[in-house]
Specification:
332 residues, globular, four-stranded antiparallel β-sheet, alpha+beta
Amino acid sequence: MTTMNATPLVPDHRTLMSAMRLASRAPSVHNTQPWHWRFDGERLHLHSDPDRVLITADPQGRQQVISCGAMLHHVRTAFGAQRWHTDTTRMPDPLDPGRLAEISFRPWPGPPAGLVARAGAIDHRRTDRLPMDPPAHWDDVARTLRMLVSPHYVDLEVLDDSVRPRLSAVSEQAAALRRHDQMYQAEIGWWAGHSGFPEGIPTDALISDSERARVRVGRAFPSAPHSARRPDIEDRSRLVVLSTPGDSAAEWLATGEALSAILLECTVAGLATCALTHITELPTGRTILTGFLPRPGHPQLVVRIGAAPADEPEHPPTPRRPLADTLTIDRH
């Protein structure tokens, strides 16, 4: 850390780069990594990257902002584990909607053990699109997840298994509506199924048609080469909906932060996760999900939470862009 006269205490360069590199593992829609950070010597500024919006699938930029919210939470978690508290102002400039957050720092001698554990889970979190077994100790897990999302004013609702067939029908309907949309197919083909790039979803992270048939609620990505992993498992994951009171950009950002907390906490608990964004991409899906909520709200996304076989090797990490592409450090 540095201190010069009245200059605020800030993380040194090594700590900054270490935390940002770890946080770059944050999930994003189609692994677009649609964020850009700027460090001005005292504060970190988070901006959305307008060149990485999904024009067809996400014309409002809702999923992009959710992705940036997940990155924001990853950054705060990474710095917290390095004993830096992050005072965060969200949507600091109403005239600049692409400027999503501003972070200032102060020392944090004793970050909570739960935060440190979630930071340690960042490198191990993966999106698991395969069928899953049911999660153990689910009531305790769900209680913890609700506690973690409540500071973000996001509601977490566990869907009853009885609604799964209807949700499966919504998923299939979304796929059918997109099937002949050439712009959508071109867009998803650009971002999924190519290996060797620092962005997008590589082939080994996708699933085959036969595997997807046992999940029933997954997005219809380009199919991976035929395989039948976990052949004895029909998906029995639990499904949770994240919803917000309104539908503003600030609430999209909060949804991403809540999503990050859920994914990391589940990783700490040894559970597998997969965020389902396609169900809420279209108004019809959001309308149907609204009917599953116990109180008025705006469904933002669905998350599958389950268990992967204990003896299964860890999935390889998906690629990430070089830090130099997503972080600018002002030189004074």
